[in-house]
Automatic annotation (TrEMBL):
Keyword Signal: yes
Keywords: Signal
Name recorded for this polypeptide: Extracellular solute-binding protein
A Pfam family hit: SBP_bac_1
SUPFAM superfamilies: Periplasmic binding protein-like II (SSF53850)
Species the sequence originates in: Streptomyces mesophilus
Signal peptide bounds: 1-21
InterPro entries assigned to the protein according to its UniProt record, in alphabetical order: Bact_solute-bd_prot1, SBP
């Protein structure tokens, strides 16, 4: 998962997207009368246009499905890693809820999601969702969720700062050495400029460590044991240490929590950060970045890239009529080209950032191609700024997050923070200590 508020995904149309609802049977017809489903993640009142778009979609769905009532809540964040486990274990989860990829196995194993094998046909384009994404929500031939987000990490960069520092925005860094050199030039612009932004806590430090080690060809976990105490792992920490203490190009403030780096990026004085393409959407829409300033390219080195995503799952307590209504809602709002989150014409009219290639869950299927065409036809963003990411994406090996990801990320936060705050940090010891702690976590199964 993304340890940020990953469920608040602005899938290029500007809608904040995550449903909560209840379940049904395997018929094509409407769920019938007297059914109420709850849907979470209604956009906040502070985003009136996207909130109205959501409410309009609810009204349209109810009109198309007589007898079905949709109740929205503007719960934010939709997914909170700090409360998710307790909420689902306590039976307090909504009837349709979002689950990050790192939690799929656990939720399915504990029977906290409904078997929807017999009703996947209610999501008309279910078969167009990438097979590897569908495989992740399938166990023993049974389907437990509808994949809805699929991403891979790249390098997000500020093209305007590149130009200001004498760098070519059309030739972004392809290696970590090039990232370091570019970061130094940007930092040299003066006080307040940060060449490369990085996290040191809140689980996102460890999350970015995983992204970085994968890009260099390293691993997080192999055969159930920690594998990050390696040459690649040391290179991640050494590069970050040197950028902080030799180059002074990563800033002096330790960033804890996903939004901190996003805010810094949006302020226009940070040159680069690791992130999926939706980072561009968030920086522009949530943190007032200038739309024309941002580009994304493939992750440095490109040996592999962290991939992740999320799916909608249904509470196992949902009855047949509720399940059916929920699947119809998921189909309508999240999986139909030109509707709901894929209504890019509406998004553009509302002033939303449209055009970022931030969700490839449909792949190159007919539905996927239709979504891409609609997105590009209605783009409000300079899509050419993202072309190097698109061109190289297929050649970069996708890596899933490791088992016990959040716990491992918390462990590695310590190492990331240490190299950012202590010039004399002992990288070998940091990794050795992290390895010991990680293996204890992994041994718990």
């Amino acid at each position: 998962m993304k340890p940020r508020n990953l469920a608040i995904f602005l899938i290029s149309s500007g809608l904040v997207l995550t449903a909560t609802a209840c379940g049904g049977d395997d018929s094509d017809s409407d769920a019938g009368g007297g059914v109420t489903i709850t849907v979470a993640c209604q956009p906040a009142k502070t985003a009136p246009k996207t909130r109205k778009a959501w409410d309009d979609d609810v009204a349209a769905f109810e009109k198309a499905h007589p007898g079905v009532k949709v109740k929205s809540t503007d719960q934010q964040p939709c997914y909170d890693p700090k409360t998710f486990a307790a909420k689902i274990a306590g039976g307090q989860m909504e009837t349709v809820f979002v689950v990050p990829v790192t939690n799929y196995t656990d939720v399915i194993a504990k029977k906290q999601a409904k078997d929807i094998t017999g009703v996947t046909n209610l999501v008309k384009n279910f078969g167009d969702i990438k097979q590897d994404a569908r495989d992740m929500v399938t166990k023993d031939g049974k389907v437990y969720g509808v994949p809805n987000v699929n991403y891979s990490v790249g390098l997000v960069y500020n093209r305007a700062l590149f130009e200001k520092a004498g760098l070519d925005p059309e030739a972004p860094p392809q290696t970590w050495d090039e990232v370091r050199a570019a970061a130094k030039k940007i930092a040299d612009l003066g006080d307040g400029y940060v060449g490369y932004g990085e996290y040191g806590g809140g689980n996102v430090g460890g999350w970015h460590f995983a992204q970085s080690i994968f890009s260099r060809g390293g691993e997080m976990v192999v055969d159930g044991k920690a594998a990050f105490n390696s040459a690649e792992g040391k290179a991640v920490l050494q590069t970050l240490h040197d950028m902080r203490w030799e180059d002074d190009s990563v800033g002096k403030k330790v960033l804890i929590g996903w939004e901190t780096l996003m805010q810094q990026m949006g302020a226009g004085k940070t040159g680069m950060m690791l992130g999926a393409p939706d980072v561009v959407t968030d920086v522009v829409q949530k943190f007032q970045g200038k739309v024309e300033d941002y580009g994304i390219t493939a992750i440095p080195e490109g040996k592999a890239s962290l991939t992740g995503g999320e799916a909608y799952m249904i509470n196992p307590k949902a009855n047949a009529a509720e399940t059916k209504a929920a699947m119809q809602w998921i189909d309508f709002q999240f999986n139909t080209p030109g509707k709901g989150r894929h209504d890019y014409a509406r998004g553009k009219a509302n002033g939303d950032p449209v055009g970022v290639p931030n969700n490839d869950y449909m792949g190159d299927s007919p539905t996927g191609q239709e979504i891409i065409k609609l997105r590009n036809d209605n783009a409000s963003l300079p899509v050419e700024n993202y072309q190097t990411y698109i061109d190289k994406a297929a050649s970069v090996t996708a890596k899933l997050e490791p088992a016990k990801a959040q716990e491992l990320y918390a462990v590695l936060d310590v190492a990331m923070s240490a190299v950012l705050t202590r010039e004399n940090a002992d990288i070998d010891k940091l990794l050795s200590d992290a390895e010991t702690k990680a293996n204890k976590i992994l041994a718990q199964g």
